[in-house]
Amino acid sequence: MKIEQTLKNIFTSGSINAYNLKKPEKCSLPVVVYKRIGRSKISRNFSNNGDLESVLIRFSVLGDNYSETVQLSEQLETLLDGNKTNFENCSFVGGSENYVEDTKLNDLVSDYEIINKI
Asked: What is the C-alpha to C-alpha distance for residues 67 and 81, in angstroms, rounded to an integer?
C-alpha cells in the first residue's frame, strides 16, 4: 500500500484531521499538514524484505491553542514513532516549535523517516 494511503488510514483511525501539503482556509484546529521532503530507494542488498524506500515526511501540527496543539502532536507521535504494524519502520528524526505571527498559529514540526516496501 502506498505511504499516503497508509497515513490517511492511520489518521482516520486516530480521528486526526490531516491534509497533504496545505490546510484548507476553513477547518477546525488543531490540524496536521504533511509533505514529503525526501525519498530514496534502499537496495535489496541491504534488506531481507526486498526493495524498500525511505521517505522523509514533515508533519506540521497547527493550532491556535498551544496545549491542544501539543496534545495532537503527542497523539501523532504515539501513532507513528516505532510503527512497524503499518510500515517496515517509522522513526522520529527531529522537530521544532514555532509561532507564526501573521497566522497567529502554533506550528509544531516533526520529521519522520518511514521505511516501506516498494
From this structure: 21
